[in-house]
Amino acid sequence: MRVAGIGLRANARADSIADALARAGGDVACLAVLADKAGHPALRAFSARAGMQVRLVPRESLAGIVTLSRSSRIEARFGTGSVAEALALVGAGPGARLVGPRVVSHDGLATAAIAERMDE
Q1: Which GO terms describe its molecular function (predicted)?
Q2: This model's pTM is above 0.70
Q3: What pLDDT was estimated at residue 118?
Q4: Which fold has domain 2-116?
């Protein structure tokens, strides 16, 4: 199962998410986002348009997750090097691994990372 972790700024649009997801490799079972972004208009529009399930991840679940990308600003705020990468790993579940580092949408308003877990 492949899950995309999505990070987004307040002014992100559905197209921002679509672009970040496409750049990351697309083809995922669902999205994982911070629980406090559940009502974000871009997320709601994109998930409705794509018919994609959204997993809400509590902010505190990200602390200590080891990621491929590292931002000292993000690490100080969230306790992990990349929100999108940590979301993907948590969303995919135990034993998941990142497919690659997070990518940024063309407009810089969304990030995406994909993690996969081989179901047994």
Answers
A1: hydrolase activity
A2: yes
A3: 84
A4: Nucleotidyltransferase; domain 5 (3.30.420)
